[in-house]
User: What shape does this take?
Amino acid sequence: MSLFCKSLTTLSRGVDVVKACVRRHSSSLTSELMENMDKKATWDRFYTENSSCTHTFKNFEWFFGFESVRDFIMPLLQTRSHPDALLQVLDVGCGTSALGPCVYQHSPLPVLVSCVDISPVAVRLMQEHVQAQAIQPHNTSSQLEFLELDCTHLLKRYALSTVDLIIDKGTIDALLRSKEGKGKANLMLKQCLKVLRSSGSLLQFSDEDPDARLLWLETEAQEAGLMAADVGVQEVGELRGVNYFCYQVTPRCVV
Ligand SMILES: C[S@@+](CC[C@H](N)C(=O)[O-])C[C@H]1O[C@@H](n2cnc3c(N)ncnc32)[C@H](O)[C@@H]1O
Assistant: This one.
């Protein structure tokens, strides 16, 4: 298949994935999401509509939940970077997913899980939810927080080389599929690599084909003379006829 045909297939599959993820929502919101998933206002509307559908809070999961990906995540949380420090984990574009809280709950080593999102609505819903739930962590020193943050500016909050693991479930996908989001996706990837420790990893869960995503990651993760990265891919599995992948990006210093 030519690269052009491949991008068309990827694009139309992307539309199907968005439709499948938001199938309970109004058609005007679905069309807004198709083009504007890089916009804070779109997501504020999405999480507001989502929470008004039910009386009790329910986590919303893009693609799938923690159980489908725990075997990719938990093995990366088995060694401490410093004897006394918490392992710093970021869930970028966390939405109202239970992924971050599940990592906090299940990690045997002490972790600080920071779930960050551009939408203050999603962040407030999660803060209220965990306060009401009082989830108990496996390790009593672990911590969990929810922060409103634009992940294209991670360096405003996190210092260089301080984060052990970054998890991205559908967020860079959302930016890449938006009319004006590609520049933001490039920026977010670069910021992730800058805040990661040299021993750290970025895990991306995505439905994008390895042919396209590996090329994008390898190209964008480079900054002439400053930064490079090793990139790998594993299959997560199939859901509703779509194949999902886990991309692992590890920063490599260029001297
Ligand atoms: C496709 S949803 C995925 C949500 C969640 N990770 C999940 O698995 O359900 C994309 C999320 O990214 C957030 N987002 C979009 N642009 C962002 C940005 N620049 N910084 C932080 N979060 C962003 C949106 O608010 C939304 O919650």
